[in-house]
Fold this protein.
Amino acid sequence: MTTKHEQILQYIANLEVGEKISVRSIAKDLGVSDGTAYRAIKDAEAQGLVNTIERVGTVRIEKKQRSDIERLTFAEVVNIVDGTVVGGRAGLHKTLNRFVIGAMKLEAMMRYVESGNLLIVGNRDNVHRISLERGAAVLITGGFDATDEVKALADKLELPVISSSYDTFTVAAMINRAIYDRLIKKEILVVEDVMSKEPSPVYLTVHDNVERFHQLVRETGHSRYPVVDESMRVVGMVTAKDVMGFVSDDKVEKVMTRNPIVANPKTSLASAAHEMVWEGIELLPVVNDQRRLLGVISRQDVIKSLQYMQKQPQVGETFQELSFRSFEELMKNGQPVYRGKITPQMTDSLGTLSSGVCTALITETALRTLRKQRRGDLSVHNLTLYFLKPVQIDSIVELVPRILDLGRKQAKLDVEMVLDHQIVAKALITAHTIER
């Protein structure tokens, strides 16, 4: 039986995109308390079903898929550019397909302006009006305002007109940075990306007996299942090892492992993989905030997905990857060595190599070295770093890794940073590995 909380979430999910809701309206329509309505709306906001917009209220929005995570809503653009909405507030929940910089003649500019775009332009009233008529929102730079005619048209068409005090270049750079950050986030696999897409995962209830377990094994070929109670909350796990020595009539509740480790759909895949390897878990139930079963992921699913991602081109690069971009791989005495230049972006206020960047460089060196030795994904578990001498800007350094111990589940490395044949930093790293 569904709870009031779940009924409210389902009610919100069935609303039309753009429809406004409030705690009072939800409480009145569904006959619940204000507190219950408030908690459900906050949960819906966390799930991406609604968005609270200043001076507009809480609005039902289109839930973004992982493939569309880099697309911004106009409300998010307002926050990014510290803007003020001067018209068309009702359209702030809409997403923009791309932005266009209006730094050309009107005739040439309009060839690029389409429905769903955001036109970034100065105080050109005629351009504002024509852009809205073509279905594009407007971002006015330089702190200028729009005319009353443009504001009225924006309200009628439900297309936002935003004013920002920043110049055109700065605004475009800020929006581009936000999209770039989302591209990096998009490339990070989370549990829901690999979770079984079956309508209902295979599970056992606390009232089932061991015979039901054996029946599922014959039907599915699997040997481990989550156990749920009457409310579909995960309360245990049962494996073939657990049922050994028990007869068919024994209850599953008697043989199951209670309070199993679970994962949230938004848990990163790397974190889930580390947990599964560290705890020796083959199957991980995926649950919501109420611990209700949503699906399962197996260790094999995780490994395959991580291996697949390693083969894909990275769209957005992390700081660790950007720091390592200027380094090249060399071979010395049959061992890989990484040589590169300390650029201004890698230094602190004193012009010496930043400790954070140094850690990133050494970590990336260790991971690249291990990937050459074995397949699978790796996660740094422990790092002890010693700084022996400061490294000046524009210095050419070498990173020299040496594997000390390579086990089945973990590895230990020694990494030295060398400048002019002198060791300037040294680290001992322990990394956990995920085998195929």
About this structure: The first strand starts at residue 20 and ends at 21. The longest helix spans residues 168-187. The chain has a mean pLDDT of 83. The chain is about 35% helix and 25% strand.
